[in-house]
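Obj: model holo form, ligand = nicotinamide-adenine-dinucleotide.
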Amino acid sequence: MLNRGITGIAYETVQDGEGRLPLLAPMSEVAGRMSVQVAMRFLETDYGGRGVLLSGVPGVPPADVVILGCGIVGFNAAKIAVGLGAHVTMLDINHNRLKYIDDVLHGNVITVYSNPVTVQRAVSYADVVIGAVLLAGARAPVLVTEKMVSQMKPGSVIIDVSVDQGGSVETTRPTTHAEPVYKLHNVIHYGVPNIPAAVPRTSTYALTNAVLPYIRTMASKGLRKAAEEDSALALGINLAQGVLTNEAVAAAFGMGWKSWQDMA
Ligand SMILES: NC(=O)c1ccc[n+]([C@@H]2O[C@H](COP(=O)([O-])OP(=O)(O)OC[C@H]3O[C@@H](n4cnc5c(N)ncnc54)[C@H](O)[C@@H]3O)[C@@H](O)[C@H]2O)c1
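Output (holo structure tokens):
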């Protein structure tokens, strides 16, 4: 791309003033919602699960869903799990996120400040654990140790959505859509790193909806003016005119770089 002088804009570095990644958010929404759909399937005995209906029925309690991380994935997972009638516990270290979740989900989930003790307690009674944590620019923190997994209920399900960032569960490894799960300590592990690919129609429309406004602006104003007026878009430019313009990418490849703004 450098040799050909291509201008490259990376979805994952388009970042707004509040640190949000608007072109990654749609995929987190899809993955969060899918995670519950997937967990529901693998709780069935035919798939090796503990044979629990997420919603329960009158007289029989619902499944316990524990969600680690109250970000976009976690929130979207919670909406679906709550909608299906599960008993949902969410953990995070960001108090504002816990407060937000408590407000918007009207007390339909239990929010807990995340630390090793609270994680251990929640995981021990979970039928489903959804790993949805992220540390910007770093590997996901491992919150669930192998020992905690070995103490989980037989046939329970772990959906480690964070697997693309290294995973938040010590025993998860990346899997594929063709072979999405494996069992360890009698717990089903799902570690597909590209969950939205299972629902490409929804995912493509969702992504396109987010990208199209940027395309429109660039088409009507040209890249330079569009990026000058939108710092999020400017941060997305990784290469231009045969030069790397993203410091982190340049460092990763041991190459030189130049700020895009400094180029003619
Ligand atoms: N597998 C897939 O197909 C797929 C798709 C989309 C996103 N993801 C991954 O899902 C993860 C979550 O993405 P997101 O968009 O929701 O991120 P986000 O930044 O919106 O949310 C992450 C949350 O994790 C919380 N967190 C950080 N450390 C924590 C800790 N120790 N305990 C509890 N919470 C903690 C943060 O406070 C934040 O609220 C990322 O790793 C992302 O790469 C995977």
